[in-house]
Amino acid sequence: MITQEEVLQMLKDKNAYLEGHFRLSSGRHAGKYMQCAKIMQYPEDFGKLCAELASYFKDEKITLVAGPAVGAVIFSYEMGRALGVKTIFAEREDGVMTFRRGFEVSPEDRVLVVEDVITTGGSCKEVIKAVQAKGATVVSAASIVDRSAGKVDMGVPFKALLSMEIESYEEDECPLCKQGLPIVKPGSRKFDK
Questions:
Q1: Which residue of 35, 70, 97, 102 is most buried, as measured by CB atoms within 10 A?
Q2: DSSP-assigned letter for residue 188
Q3: Among 115, 107, 111, CA closest to 76
Q4: Which string of b and e fits 48-67 if b means at least 16 CB within 10 Å?
């Protein structure tokens, strides 16, 4: 069993845990950032994390793993590998998370929805909604990191390998902005500002 401290150390060792001034995918600002794509560069280490997380779902009869593009494409693939099931990803089309590329979700599917890092759970909740719109059962949601320290409500059971509170702020309340620190947007979603 991998402890939360070991997960955090793995993220630090692979420069996936960053400090500075960041714009999150939710639009909020933070002084710390989890860039799980950095640990995904190391298949052996990332595979260990995914195998550990998958072990929590081994008796859930999962038939499909789904996650949002771009951040969870590799993650959903590795979780599918660890569980021995099919994996797909959802993309935004006209602002709505949807399954494209011929990906199918059937009403018989028992789905695990994954996202590498959860802050508000917005993208993950959109994928949950897309899965449920296909009539399938969302068994659970899962992430490597839960930045809300367990406060986020996904509407389904939720499991994270690392749960910690990383304070985030609305832009107009951000103390880092008030200090004049330059902001970085390291994630995959683009912003106008």
A1: 97
A2: S
A3: 115
A4: bbbebbbeebeeeebbbbbb
pTM of full prediction above 0.85: yes
Looking at residue 89, the DSSP 8-state letter turns out to be: E
Q: Where are the alpha helices (DSSP H) in the chain?
A: 4-13, 43-55, 73-83, 122-133, 175-178
Nearest to 190 by CA among 23, 67, 39, 40: 23
**Burial label, 158 (beta-carbon count in 10 A; 0-12, 13-18, 19+):** buried
Say if CB 147 and CB 117 are below 8 A apart.
yes
**Alpha carbon distance 47, 53 (integer Å):** 10
Q: Which amino acid is at 114?
A: V
Other beta carbons within 10 Å of 1: 5
pLDDT, tens digit, 9 for 90 and up, residues 37-94: 999 999 999 999 999 999 999 999 999 999 999 889 999 999 999 999 999 999 999 9
pLDDT of 135-172, one tens digit each?
999 999 999 999 889 999 999 999 999 999 888 899 99
